[in-house]
Structure formats: structure tokens, C-alpha cells
Amino acid sequence: MDIVRCSLQLLSLLFFFISSLCVSGTESRLPKLGAVRKNIRPGLQFASDNSVSSDLVTFYYTQTLDHFNYKPESYTTFQQRYVINFKYWGGARASAPIFVHFGAEEDLDYDIRGVRFLVDNAPRFKALLLYIEHRYYGKSKPYGSSEKVYKNASSLGYFNSAQAIADYAAVIIHVKKKYSASNSPVIVCGGSYGGMLAAWFRLKYPHVALGALASSAPILYFDDIAPRQGYYSIVTKDFKEASETCYQTIRRSWAEIDKVASKPNGLSILSKKFKTCKPLKKTFELKDYLDSIYAEAAQYNDPPEYPVSVVCGGIDGAPSRTDILGRIFAGVIAYKGNDSCYDMDEYKYPDETYLGYRWQTCSELVMPIGHERDSMFQPEPFNLADFVKGCKRLYGILPKPHWITTYYGGHDIKLILHRFASNIIFSNGLRDPYSSGGVLENISDSLIALSTVNGSHCLDIQAAKPSDPYWLVQQRKTEVQIIEGWISKYYTDLLEYKDKNGAR
């Protein structure tokens, strides 16, 4: 009910945002990040999982609103949620490690139930598990309510990655002090945007975290380091490899949608053909919906279901005389199920992830993702000028497309990080469209790139299952061995330090 209530409260705000965006002429398709695929319809509730919830203890930390200024308003505080699982911890006296999961652009509960790598490996390391929610999401909202949080750019001004990782540092230090665990090594982990935060945290706070696992973290998809067409070129590749005929059908479908729409009552025909819950007002609504399905299927193309094959199975499996759009709709049914109608706004509901991600991409997370001519989509290159106009109209502020690389780096990453950075695992699945912005080659002996040809978005940090293919099992095994090596070296250093300094 909380999610439904939040959706209703934010509906008018979202209507303003979408209306403003349409007026600006900018209708950008920005594929969402997110460590786990989830149904984003309002009212979603997680299935009860007593085995998970019974081991978790929820706390709130009085967090500083602004870590980087000393104005009176900077000292404003809010309650930041963090969750601890003590079940496996060997204790502070044994200097047992602390595994920290960084929440990202959603309620922390999604990751607690979906990201299970740390839980699966905590017994082996006797680790304390710490989950920290990202500011402005879930129950960690400054200003108290969603309406105040998303009111305008002034209330959103403290909503950025630098503040978020400063939050994480403060919480980790607080927890270590609270449980007298000053000598417990910290390993941070995150997926997708959370993976970027984990990598950046290790670069900015090496005194707090011994190492980082950054899963599917597209830290190079900024400032034109990665090719703009990278994301959708991999989506295209995934579909083409699954089925050449499916790929060709999708490629031809966009012109067919335009052809039907140009007829008298064309939008009405399309609405009936695709059983839309509301009459289409323009072809963009349908195209954007289909685009989102294809991108989501490719991004989370997990075994054993392999959603891309599911979509293509529906398209290719339609009766022989089915027309192009009929085949496309058959793919929708195969992926979404046989519903009474299909909501073209399903991927744009006014939840905090949608609104928060829109702000983040309009401020600092400017990823120039676009459709180029060599993909299965209609050409629609990323246009920075139009993007800037849209964000200006939405929030009254201009995006900073070069800030991420200014603050965290990214250019010439192999040359730069080789000398000063260490202990980061960059893991990627090459079927994940976001891997086009990931680190895919080793930078040094301790800056390791682990990629799997058939892997998908953040697959390595999801729960281990008996059905997992061998290559996935091996990827996780390698990650554990690397982390084990970091911790072993730390313990050696700790003993030498104690011997030299007579410390207890």
C-alpha cells in the first residue's frame, strides 16, 4: 500500500514532468539501471521471505544533508536507513570482515532480496552484512515526504553520487565504531549504478574500504569515452544472435508502425492491434513501450529463461500468415503474458525510481545513449542540445555532462588507475548492453576485469541457483578467491603493524 500511496502522491508531479518534456520536444529513451529486474507496476509487494527478514535488523543513522559545505542549512540532518545481518559475523575480536552493499536508485528492500552474493558467501568469511540505503530513496528521504523531496531543484540539490558515497563512508565508520570493529576489513559491493558507487568509493575512500566488487558498472559511459551506440548495438546483437528472422522483423516493424499510423484512424488501429489500455495519442508511446521491452529483455537476459529468446520465440512462433505487427504483438504476449490490455506507461510510472533517476540523469549521470543506423531501431542519435533543453525545462538547471569524469576520472583509465588504484573487481556479462561502458580489460594485478560471454546485467551478484551454468559458477568463484586474497593480505599487514607498534 505504501508504494501505491506514493505513486498517487507523485502522479501530479510526474504529469508536469512528462508534459514539460513533451513540450520541449525531447522524448529521450534512457534505459534504466538497476541490479535486478523488477516489475515496476504500482502496488508491487515482495513475497514474504521469513528466512531473509528474520536475520535482518533495521537501524537509522542521523545523516548530514550536505557533507561539503559549512552553511547553516548544510547541517540539516535526515534519517538514513541501514540494515545489518549479524548471523554469520565472527566478531570484532577476530577482526572478521564487514561486507557492505550499496543501495542504488530504489528502495533498499529490492536489493536485500535480489542481490544475494554477499549472503551466499558470508558464512565462508564469517562476515557482518551491512546494507545502506541511498539518500532520497526508500525510507531515507531528506525533508521527510516525497512531495517535499521532489518539489524542485532546490530540494533535489543534495541528491548526487558524491553526497551518497560520503553518506556511506559516515555510516560504515559509525558501524565500525559502534561494534568496536576498527580492525575489521570492509569490502563494498554494488550492482549497476550501485556498482559505479562501489568503484568510485574505493577510489575516494580507500581508508574506509579495503576493496570493491563493482558488478555491471558502466563507469565509462560518460563524456563520450564509450561509443554512444554501444548500448543499443548490444541489444541488437543479442536479438540477432537469438534469431535472425526475429531481428529482421523488429527492424522492419518501426516503419510499419508509421505506415499504419498514417492511415485514417491509424492510431486507433494500432491501439486495437496492441490491446493498449488507453488509446494511443502518438506512435512514440507504442515505440517507447516496445523499445523498453527489448532493452529490458537484453539487459536482464538471465539463464535459464533467457528473455530475449522468449520474445523472439513469440515473434517467430506466430502463425505463418501473421503480419509484421501481429508478430511483434506475439512477442509482447510471450514476454508479458496474455493480459486483457497492455499499459504503454508501464515503464514510466511515477515511483521514486523513475523520478529520482530522471533527476540524476538530468544533473550528473549524463549517459549519451542513442539509436544509431546500425541497430535494429529507428535512428535517433543522442542530441545533447535537446537533452539540455529538456532538463532545463524540467528543473530549471543545466546538466553537467563532464562532471563525472572530472570528479571520478575515466579518460585514459588504464594509464591513470594503473599506478594509484587497487582492489577493484569490475565484473560484466557481455550480453548486458551496459557492458559497452564497463571496464573489460585488467588494469593491474588488483584492478581485475571479469567478463562472461553469455552473462547479463549484475547476474554474478544475484542468488546462486542449482541451475546456474558452469561459467557463472566460475565467475563467482573467481570473485570470492580475489576477495579472499585481499583479506588475507590485510590480515598479514595487520599482524605486522601490531608487532611493530605493540598494538593490541
UniProtKB/TrEMBL annotation:
- What GO biological process terms are annotated to this protein in UniProt? proteolysis
**Signal sequence segment:** 1-28
Asked if the Swiss-Prot or TrEMBL record annotates the protein with the keyword Membrane, the reply is no
Write one Gene Ontology MF term: serine-type exopeptidase activity
Q: Which UniProt keywords apply?
A: Glycoprotein, Hydrolase, Protease, Signal
What single Pfam family name could you report for this chain, choosing any that match?
Peptidase_S28
| The UniProt record lists the keyword Glycoprotein | yes
Q: Which Gene3D superfamilies match?
A: alpha/beta hydrolase, Serine carboxypeptidase S28, SKS domain
The record's listing under PANTHER family reads: PROLYLCARBOXYPEPTIDASE-LIKE PROTEIN-RELATED, PROTEASE S28 PRO-X CARBOXYPEPTIDASE-RELATED
- Stated family: Belongs to the peptidase S28 family.
Protein name listed in UniProt: Lysosomal Pro-X carboxypeptidase
Query: Which organism is this entry from?
Result: Turnera subulata
Which taxonomic lineage is given here?
A: Eukaryota, Viridiplantae, Streptophyta, Embryophyta, Tracheophyta
